[in-house]
């Protein structure tokens, strides 16, 4: 990869990370928060791709993809169980310490 391609990939990764971070901070829906975390992990993958093509970097990229897939599967399972128990996916309404009306 030449320098302009690497810079473009880094800008894209920074944009994806900022969008993911914004989604995590602003959304009050568990599924949207998980999507924001996935965007941030993909931004980290793009950074690893931009910084080199060695076999060690490919191992780390594969590892991060594996972690992202596992995180998505476990996260969706948790969200479904929480929704089944509380009948809502809003984190503000989920608490055992609040009094139930």
Question: What is the approximate shape?
Answer: elongated
Helix content: over 70%
Structure classification? mainly alpha
Mean pLDDT: 82
**Helical stretch tally:** 3
Stretches where pLDDT falls below 50 for ≥5 residues?
none
Evaluate the radius of gyration: 17 Å
What profile does the largest beta sheet have?
Answer: none
Order of helices and strands: HHH
| Termini separation | 60 Å
Beta-strand portion reads under 5%
Number of strands: 0
Give a structural overview.
The longest helix has 32 residues, at 55-86. This protein has helices at 3-26, 30-51, 55-86. It has 3 helices and no strands. Helices cover 77% and strands 0% of the residues. Helix 1 runs antiparallel to helix 2 and helix 2 (30-51) packs antiparallel against helix 3. The chain is mainly alpha-helical and 101 residues long.
What are the SSEs and their pairings?
Blueprint lengths: L2 H24 L3 H22 L3 H32 L15
Helix pairs in contact: 1-2, 2-3
Question: Keyphrases for this structure?
Answer:
101 residues, mainly alpha, elongated
In short:
The protein has three helices and no strands.
């Amino acid at each position: 990869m030449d320098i302009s391609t690497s810079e473009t990939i880094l800008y894209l990764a920074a944009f994806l990370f900022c969008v993911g971070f914004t989604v995590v901070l602003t959304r009050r829906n568990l599924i949207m928060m998980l999507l924001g975390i996935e965007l941030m992990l993909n931004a980290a993958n793009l950074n690893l791709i931009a910084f080199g093509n060695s076999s060690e970097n490919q191992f780390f990229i594969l590892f991060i993809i594996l972690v992202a897939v596992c995180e998505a599967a476990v996260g969706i399972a948790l969200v479904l169980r929480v929704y089944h128990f509380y009948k809502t996916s809003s984190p503000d309404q989920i608490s055992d310490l609040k009094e139930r009306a």
